[in-house]
Amino acid sequence: MTKQPHDTDVAFIQALAELLNANELTELSVKREYGENDSLNVRVTKQANVVTTTATAAPAPAPAAAPAAAPAAAPAVAEDPAQHPGAVTSPMVGTAYLAPEPGAENFVSIGTQVSEGDTLLIVEAMKTMNHIPAPRAGTVKRILVEDGSPVEYGAPLVILE
Fold it and tell me: Which of 76, 83, 94, 127 could cross-link 52 (Cys pair, CB 3.0–4.6 Å)?
């Protein structure tokens, strides 16, 4: 049983990141077992066009692996739009549409003043068009999705301030 990181771990994590991008996935989680009390847990996520990798090792075998991965994940947390206090998140999995129909003007654009309850965009789920209302009055500072793009539950859609 070794307490050193396995040489193939770096190549394995890089391959997971490439797999994530090639298949347009947003997250992969893998547990690699090397033997009794020797494993590697890897979680690769993609948010707002940023790929972050967090690797943690089993507590006993590789104490040096966890601190090495922590600095790589820290910048992604600081820039995460979902953590912004004005973030409006998706209440469901679906497809985001910025306009009521193709060719029509968008519901909102950057700088638009909205009142509580105004429609910001639509999320289509199971052929049902769900209007996403503004939770409060404010100004649209950022639109974080593109028209026709897939969204996940809890994904940030718009930043209101």
Answer: 76
147 with 118, same domain? yes
Contact between 137 and 11 under an 8 Å Cβ cutoff? The reply is no
pLDDT by residue, tens only, the chain of 161 residues: 444 556 677 777 777 777 777 777 777 777 777 777 777 777 777 765 444 455 555 554 444 444 444 444 444 444 677 777 888 999 999 999 999 988 899 999 999 999 999 999 999 998 899 999 999 999 999 999 999 999 999 889 999 98
In three-state secondary structure terms, 40 is: strand
pTM: 0.51
**CA atoms of 40 and 32, how far apart (whole Å):** 5
Q: Tell whether 108 and 75 lie within a shared domain.
A: no
Determine, yes or no, domain membership for 29.
yes
Indicate the number of domains in the chain. 2
For 56, half-sphere exposure in the C-beta direction (CA atoms, 13 angstrom radius) is 6
In the chain, alpha helices (H): 8-22, 65-78
Same domain for 16 and 53, yes or no, is yes
3-state secondary structure at position 88:
strand
Q: How far apart are the C-alpha atoms of 140 and 128, rounded to whole Å?
A: 25
